Amino acid sequence: MFANEDDIRRILDAAKRNNQTGHFLWVASDSWGSKISPVIQQERVAEGAVTILPKRASVDAFDRYFRSRSLSNNRRNVWFAEFWEENFVCKLGSHGKRPGSPKKCTGLEKVGRDSSYEQEGKVQFVMDAVYAMAHALHRMHRELCFGVPGLCSRMSNIDGKELLTHIRAVNFNGSAGTPVVFNENGDAPGRYDIFQYQITNRSTAEYKVIGHWTNQLHLNMESMRWASGDPTVPSSVCSMPCKAGERKKVVKGVPCCWHCERCEGYHFQAGEFTCELCPYEQRPDQNRTGCQPIPIIKLEWHSPWAVVPVFISMLGIVATTFVIVTFVRYNDTPIVRASGREMSYVLLTGIFLCYAITFLMIATPDVCVCSFRRIFLGLGMCFSYAALLTKTNRIHRIFEQGKKSVTAPRFISPTSQLAITFSLISVQLLGVFVWFAVDPPHTLVDFGEQRTQDPENARGVLKCDISDLSLICSLGYSILLMVTCTVYAIKTRGVPETFNEAKPIGFTMYTTCIIWLAFIPIFFGTAQSAERMYIQTTTLTISLSLSASVSLGMLYMPKVYIIIFHPEQNVPKRKRSFKAIVTAATMSSKLTQKGTDRPNGEVKTELCESMETNTSSTKTTYVSYSNHAN
Q1: HEC profile for 502-548?
Q2: Cα-atom radius of gyration of the chain, to the nearest Å?
Q3: Which pLDDT score is estimated for 593?
Q4: Residue 152: which residues within 8 A CB-CB, separation 6 or more?
Q5: How far apart, in whole angstroms, are the C-alpha atoms of residue 368 and residue 464?
Q6: Chief location of this protein (predicted)?
Q7: Which residue among 86, 183, 385, 542 is the one 20 to 30 A from 343 at the CA level?
Q8: What pLDDT digit, counting tens, does each position of 159-177 carry?
Q9: What pLDDT, on a 0 to 100 scale, did the predictor assign at position 56?
Q10: Spatial distance between the Cα atoms of 572 and 165, rounded to a whole number of angstroms
Q11: Which residues contact 413 (CB under 8 A, 6 or more apart)?
């Protein structure tokens, strides 16, 4: 504060009224100094204030002179009478300046005896100032008048600038014994005492000298005390230094003041005043003073997202292997032959591949793994549904042909069926090879999939370069086969269960369609999720495993059950003519009840036998249960 003592008092009172006691730490000029008047009844607000006073000494000669002054020997000072009344609290006659005072001045009062007296602190400087002017005039007179007494003609009209030059050139010991000199700017050397207004434990307030200035600062830090009682020096700056990872936003027009702004998001502190964005594959370090690589993750085998699909897949592989082994062992039995051995092995191969793809989808991506993913992702489904489509198409053509004539339709032998199935599968393989040629398989790290708002949670995902569109294209052909197979299953739903596998195939396809209809919204609905990689991989692998499980459970588990637990039913049955079979199929409503009376599997696929062993007989064509798969 640079203010007079009245303004100082008002400012302290304002701080007190606004409950700001202890909030401000005051640093004041010599106008406050060590005065009592500004702090009376405001001691707590002023506590800790640091003030200065010019270093001064008491001039004993002035004390002797001033104490000897009286009304009789100091008449030249026109203000002395008023001082006399104020100092001795009395009135000088009827013309006194202190009306209403009950006491009259006698003129015999003595300064320092009948009143308190303390030498004014600036007496030393007033005396030194007068002596400086006298020394300057003496030096100027000596130079201009050459020792002639009185004013010579050259000093009759003094130039102020010339006199100022002589004043700045003086050098003498002042009244306190200290040298009086001036620098090139006309300033005397600074000599100050530094005070702090302190309240001691006895609740008494006083100004305590804590240091001084004589050409440099001398400060006793241990003597300083603050309102909180903490000896630590409080911070007193416009703005605190910014922390690591924060930039300075300078206040306009005030270069020493700034706001600290944290570098947010993926920005780091590039300089004192700037934040910059980290490269796309990096994130800020913990202090935000630089960038570090984003951790790269993949689907781990121990992750819950992988454990469940792997468990389902392993169960499916074990079950599929068991069915294959059972069929191979009982390869020449009627049920295995009636199921169509060749087509069954193709279908079981597709089911096995559907389970096995789970391991490729979870394995660490590299060029080899990515290549196998492209090949086998849709191949397992293609094997399964190509075989099922060939079967349902065969059933449909047989009964449609039978309604017109007793001649068997073409291309229903096992060899023809295999040729048709592998022709359908070759389309899938051709598409994969074209994909290989256009876009060779490779891996990439996707930093956008898990680029969260908080860089600490950002991760790069190691994956094969297979986009969602490529995935749909890879599975699209298999889904087309599945839908076509479902259409044929619907068309053959009227064929009696006793005569063929149409109904189990139909139930298989209906269930599979439901599974994949549920898969689509889950797969694409999580495209923006941070857990996208985990959800989509798990959903895809489980959907493939469930599709394979439906086919395995509905088409082959009943046959395996009969083969293992009811071998008495796994025996050849009588032959029936193709014409008889077709006639029975057209009268399904009448034969349904009759079919339920026969043992399971008795005439389930009697319609198929004659297509495989076309006899040379021109009169009647027979189909046998035993040679169905030959």
Answers
A1: HHHHHHHHHHHHHHHHHHHHHHHHCCCCCCHHHHHHHHHHHHHHHHH
A2: 56
A3: 39
A4: 141, 144, 145, 146
A5: 10
A6: membrane
A7: 542
A8: 888 889 999 999 999 888 8
A9: 83
A10: 140
A11: 611, 612, 614
Q: Look at residue 532 in the predicted model and tell me its pLDDT.
A: 78
Beta strands in 101-190 (DSSP E): 172-173, 179-180
User: pLDDT, tens digit, for every residue of 223-244?
Assistant: 888 776 667 777 777 888 889 9
Q: Which helix (H) or strand (E) holds 557?
A: helix 557-565
> Is 612's pLDDT higher than 50?
no
State how far Cα 219 lies from the chain centre.
48
Q: How far is CA 49 from CA 227, 271, 368, in A?
A: 10, 38, 78
Task: Give the integer Cα–Cα distance in Å for 255 and 237.
Answer: 13
Count CA within 13 A, CB hemisphere, residue 470.
17
Can you read off the two tokens belonging to residue 506? 């139909």
Q: Tell me, what's the pLDDT at 407?
A: 63
Reference 424, options 525, 350, 372; nearest CA is: 350
Q: What does each C-alpha distance from 358 to 167, 298, 404, 524, 546 come to in angstroms?
A: 101, 15, 47, 19, 12
pTM of the model: 0.58
Which residue type, as a one-letter code, is found at position 381?
A: M
Residue in the block written with tokens 């599968």: 425
CA 23 vs CA 12, 206, 235, 325: distances in Å: 11, 20, 12, 89
Tell me the sheet residues that pair with 180. Answer: 172
Residue 606 has pLDDT above 50, yes or no: no
Joined tokens for residue 195: 């005070």
The C-alpha atoms of residue 173 and residue 135 are separated, in whole angstroms, by 11
pLDDT, tens digit (0-9, with 9 covering 90-100), for 469-512: 787 788 888 889 888 888 887 887 666 554 556 678 778 888 88
Q: Which residue has the tokens 């240091």?
A: 211
Cα(89)–Cα(103) distance, rounded to whole angstroms? 7
Strands 282-284 and 291-293 turn out to be antiparallel
What gap in Å lies between CA 561 and CA 550, rounded to an integer? 16
